[in-house]
Amino acid sequence: QVQLVESGGGLVQAGGSLRLSCAASGRTFSSYDIGWFRQAPGKEREFVAAIRWSGSTPNYADSVGGRFAISRDNAKNTVYLQMSSLKREDTAVYHCAAGRFASTYHRRFSRVELYDYWGQGTQVTVSS
After folding, report:
1. For the segment 29-59, what is each residue's pLDDT rounded down to a tens digit?
2. What pairs with residue 5 in β-bridges?
3. Quick one: which of 2, 58, 95, 121 could link to 26 by a disulfide (CB 3.0–4.6 Å)?
4. Is the torsion defined by CA of 13, 111, 63, 30 positive or negative?
5. All residues at 6 or more sequence positions from 41 whose CB lies less than 8 Å from its CB, including other chains
6. What burial class does residue 38 get, using C-beta atoms within 10 Å of its C-beta: 0-12 exposed, 13-18 middle, 19+ buried?
7. How far apart, in whole angstroms, are the C-alpha atoms of residue 91 and residue 18?
8. For residue 118, is pLDDT > 90?
């Protein structure tokens, strides 16, 4: 069992930066692959970024590549999402999620329905 709690959201002007954190409880956190997803009002939840249990192979949605960076500190049971050059269209509730994908990671990391545990989300609002 893994419990996830996101923090770090808030209101920021376009062009600004935020760093989201996903803190996990549970001794097995370091064995989970972690994804960040977001959901804007009236839209489906979409993939943002993911990272393997080892910290390798970060992956990004095309819409955030070059602006966002995902990282993790397994000693602190925490995954981070550094967001820079924020745009109004980045406004959403951001969720982190945990799954174990092993050798199938590259086929699964962007798929919402395949993650086992979810946090409650943190709101990010980007103003113009």
Report:
1. 899 999 999 999 999 999 999 999 999 889 9
2. 23
3. 2
4. positive
5. none
6. buried
7. 12
8. yes
